[in-house]
Specification:
- This protein is an alpha/beta fold and about 425 residues long.
- It has two domains: about 170 residues, Aspartate Aminotransferase, domain 1 (Alpha-Beta Complex); about 250 residues, Type I PLP-dependent aspartate aminotransferase-like (Major domain) (Aspartate Aminotransferase, domain 2, 3-Layer(aba) Sandwich), CATH 3.40.640.10.
- A seven-stranded mixed β-sheet has the order 4-10-9-8-7-5-6, sandwiched between helices. The chain has a four-stranded mixed β-sheet with strand order 1-2-3-13.
- A hairpin with a 2-residue loop joins strand 11 and strand 12.
- Helix 5 packs parallel to helix 6 and helix 10 runs parallel beside helix 12.
- It is globular, with a radius of gyration of 21 Å.
- It starts with 7 loop residues before the first helix and ends with a helix.
């Protein structure tokens, strides 16, 4: 049974916020279009998050950074100790060296590292590095893959920005937001995901113009779209043969599907990778790792807050925890427990859905019962049912992402959390008759 539930304080705060904040929020990710107002949060602890009305939620919708859960004592201790030493310096410091060594040991592609603050920053510099290193201009990007919100990156990443009269064999290169110049994306070649033949054909036609291929190894800008068997290996072979760089955007998958990211999990080593989110356990930190000869190309990359001591202290503490024996095995075990439980309940109730995951990330998609192959496949997902499900789940103490059914596990989740989640899933689907 759902407990008495109120979110009046969230509604009131949102109305006040609209007087000063654009649209009342700090990020377009914080409120979905179907929501009247967003939930205002007060604090988090472990696998739980608490809102201003006193409601407690098991957290699966943190966008990915909270891999150790909220207020992990190791992170808090490291951050407080660093604050006492200084929050920002006008140069490098000793802890940065230790942290960099740790990342180069963990990420297979990492011979050198360059730090940034966000995934958008990291992918912007990876584009620049690829062009500077190869002397070429064009970059292959896949339809629906999200690499940030700069002018060039925010191309063909939303359903409403695609030519829905066309086909996956003729992807539409379209801007997403007002203010993007007409020429945004002119140097991008947009291809469908999981179609190696189209990549081969495109490289044959334009190979000498192409600096890089960039991809999320597991596409996350929808319900999860996993690479088909041999696909990532195929991209690696094609790029090596043609002198094209392979860039993995591991902002979501890095340190989450495995300690070495998707590149370790799939045993496909890119030339460059962008990492962020989970690396610093909730603090703003991102970067690019990869081959020495590429990263030491003479490319300008400035940033006052790059690798700032507080974020680096948090990152170093996070990776130390993730390196402990059994961490990923237990996170994967709990992910399997929740996805298998949801699939079992759905089958018993005759609900059509697809629930699956890898490592510390999983998905819940209504209206389909099989793996998605590319971005356009995600249009088959019944998003209205997910919205109803997500809204009702809040009343049953479970918080999911507002926009789509992409979920995150943390090391703080427990068997009790999973059992409560499954009980809530059963009750919510019964009440909504999904």
């Amino acid at each position: 049974m759902a407990k008495a539930y109120s979110n009046e304080k969230s509604k009131q705060l949102y109305e006040k916020a609209k007087a000063t904040l654009v649209k009342g929020i700090a990020s377009s990710f914080h409120k979905a279009a179907y929501e009247e107002f967003p939930i205002y949060f007060e604090y988090g602890k472990g696998s739980k998050i608490y809102d201003v009305d006193g409601n407690e939620y098991i957290e699966y919708g943190d966008f990915g950074p909270m891999i150790l859960g909220y207020c992990h004592p190791s992170i808090d201790k490291a951050v407080m100790e660093q604050i006492a030493r200084g929050s920002l310096f006008p140069g490098p410091y000793r802890l940065l060296h230790e942290f960099s060594e740790r990342i180069t040991r963990l990420l297979p592609c990492a011979e050198r590292i360059l730090f940034a603050n966000t995934g958008t920053d990291a992918n912007m510099v990876s584009f620049r590095l690829a062009r500077a290193h190869t002397g070429r201009e064009k970059i292959i990007k896949f339809e629906g893959h999200y690499h940030g919100w700069s002018d060039e990156q925010l191309i063909s990443v939303r359903q409403d920005s695609l030519n829905m009269m066309g086909s996956r064999n003729n992807p539409w290169r379209t801007r997403v937001t007002p203010g993007q110049p007409e020429k945004s994306g002119n140097d991008l070649i947009i291809l469908p995901w999981n179609d190696l033949g189209m990549v081969e054909e495109t490289v044959k036609r334009h190979g000498r113009e192409i600096a890089a291929i960039i991809a999320e190894p597991i596409m996350g800008n929808a319900e999860l779209v996993f690479p088909q068997a041999g696909y990532l290996q195929g991209l690696r072979e094609i790029t090596q043969e043609e002198g094209i760089l392979l860039i993995f955007d591991e902002i979501i998958t890095g340190f989450r599907v495995s300690l070495g990211g998707a590149q370790k999990y799939y045993n496909v080593i890119p030339d460059l990778c962008a990492f962020g989110k989970a690396v610093a356990g909730g603090h703003p930190l991102a970067g690019v790792a990869g081959r020495k000869d590429i990263l030491e190309t003479n490319v300008e990359h400035a940033g006052t807050f790059n690798a700032n001591p507080i974020a680096v202290a948090a990152g170093n503490a996070t990776l130390k925890e993730l390196e402990k024996p059994g961490v990923y095995e237990n996170m994967t075990r709990l992910m399997r427990k929740v996805t298998e439980g949801i699939n079992r309940i759905a089958q018993e109730k005759g609900i059509t859905l697809f629930c699956h995951g890898e490592g510390g990330i999983w998905q819940l998609a209504f209206g389909i019962n099989d793996q998605l192959v590319d971005y356009r496949d995600s249009f088959r997902v019944d998003k209205k049912k997910y919205q109803q499900f997500r809204t009702e789940s809040l009343r049953h103490g479970v918080h999911y992402l507002p926009h789509r059914g992409r979920m995150y596990m943390s090391t703080a989740h427990t068997d009790e959390d999973i059992e409560k989640t499954l009980a809530a899933f059963e009750e919510v689907t019964r009440r909504l008759r999904l």
